[in-house]
Amino acid sequence: MRFRSIMDCFCMFLEYFAKNTSIHGIHFIGNKENPCVGRILWLIIVLFALSCSYIIIKSNWNHYIESPTVVTIKKDFRNWENPFPAATGCFLNKVDEGKAATFIETRWNISKHNEKYEYYLNFVKTVSNLTYETFHTLEKFKNDAKLNEIDFVSLITNVHPELSGTLVTFQSKVEPKWNFIMTELGLCFTLNYRFAELLSPNLILNTKPKFEVDFLKCHYLNGLCYARYDCDNNVSIAFHIHSPLEVIHATSERPLNIKTSEECEVNYKLTQTYSLEDIRYLTPNQRKCRFDDEPLTANVPVYSTSICYMECRYRLSMEMCGCKPFFYTFLDGKQCDITGLLCLAKISNLFNRTTQIRCDCAQPCNLIVYLKQVPKITEWDIEFFEQRVAFRWGLILPTTKYQRKIIFGSQELMGKHNTHMSQASVLLEYWDILNL
Q1: What residues form the membrane-spanning segments (predicted)?
Q2: How many CB atoms lie within 10 A of CB 424?
Q3: Residues 61 and 79 in one domain
Q4: What is the pLDDT of residues 281-308, one digit of tens each?
Q5: Are residues 38 and 12 in the same domain?
Q6: Same domain, yes or no, for 222 and 357?
Q7: Nearest in space to 229 (alpha carbons), one of 319, 146, 169, 318
Q8: In a domain? residue 124
Q9: Per-residue pLDDT for 402 more than 70?
């Protein structure tokens, strides 16, 4: 009985609402004096109008969710401050034998005259040049329990050759400086990489690195935009040129290998896509990109495509072998010993395939790409130049850039919704007039 009384009250309310509402068409449905056929016809008309509005509004909502931004071309190049390319150099042989001898004697009390010295020197060289592709070279040391106690990062940094030579850039008032970073290609040194402190081999976990220092920029009117490094060491160096917001990793493009007594000069053409700040309120899925201060996890305070790939390989390492390679000084977890690295060697083919490691890394909202031009290499084989490595890289200033901005934001969405609802109202009003 109580349920029936509630239903009666509800029906009375609907009848009262239908008679007194100003919504077009509804009062014809609720008017009992109208023929039943007419009331049914009006019900169909109202439902049809509402269905059309719903379909169009849903289409606009999907448009807002999936593609609210657009990329446009910008040509006001005379006012641009262009990001200068970052450079990361890696010695092809990362061991200074004098430092290695000191380390071996300090750590194992083995001098050069000891018959085991070559064994330990071979171990030091193997560890210093480890990458995902060379983990298998530790196979010959797997039965030596003493070597599992070694801190690989400490070993690598203690035997790495010193950086000497002259580094200059187009900004004469700023003293340029190389920063050591630990990468998936081993210990390297970098210039103009914004997040170098995050990858420092001396980083203390759970501390917040500082990224206030901005990268070098070159104004369009600066006709000489370059950097040059003259190295006095009798070594060969692999140089990677990349975005100041990215870092080299296991699947980076092949570097420029500059051998002793060679001088290399190469220019790079800049292609840049930047995003306006007003797209920040959109989700990364909507704008299909991430800003560098929108990290994927709490472990890393920044986002870049290269760091995202590194995090994917880190997760795979932890899942498959229960430890992380020593490359990832900025990530938590147990560091792999020799046994762990040999475990990774068995699945090393997976680390070069981002699809197999379930790695879905969004494009950065500020995308900077440098296209290498034909390099000019000069070989010096007389006097002073025999023991010298020189590398000069320059920037070809662009006249076109790409800008990502909002084309269909929340304001446009609300405006469209109001328009469609008004159109449905007009349709019902038209039928009202016909009925009268």
Answers
A1: 40-57
A2: 21
A3: no
A4: 888 888 889 999 999 888 888 999 999 9
A5: yes
A6: yes
A7: 169
A8: no
A9: yes
- For the chain, how many structural domains are there in total? 2
Q: What is the dihedral of CA 62, 63, 68, 70, to 10 degrees?
A: 140
436 to 39, 215, 431, 432: CA distances (angstroms): 14, 73, 9, 6
Q: Could you list the residue range(s) of the whole structural domain that residue 280 is in?
A: 74-94+129-406
Q: How far apart are alpha carbons 331 and 309 in whole angstroms?
A: 13
Establish if 107 belongs to a structural domain.
no
Residue 436 reports pLDDT greater than 90: no
* Angle of CA points 267, 184, 151, to nearest 5°: 135
Tell whether 62 and 135 lie within a shared domain.
no
Same domain, 61 and 150: no
Residue pLDDT, tens place only, 139-189: 999 888 888 888 999 999 999 999 888 899 998 887 888 999 999 999 999
Amino acid identity for residue 433 in this structure: I
pTM of the model as a whole: 0.79
Is there a domain that residue 109 lies in? no
Helix, strand, coil percent values for the chain (each to nearest 5): 40, 20, 40
Cα 245 from chain centre: 8
Where are the strands (E) in 92-185, listed by range?
A: 166-169, 179-183
**Whole-angstrom distance, CA of residue 117 vs CA of residue 127:** 15
Which is it for the CA torsion 188, 192, 198, 201, positive or negative? Answer: positive
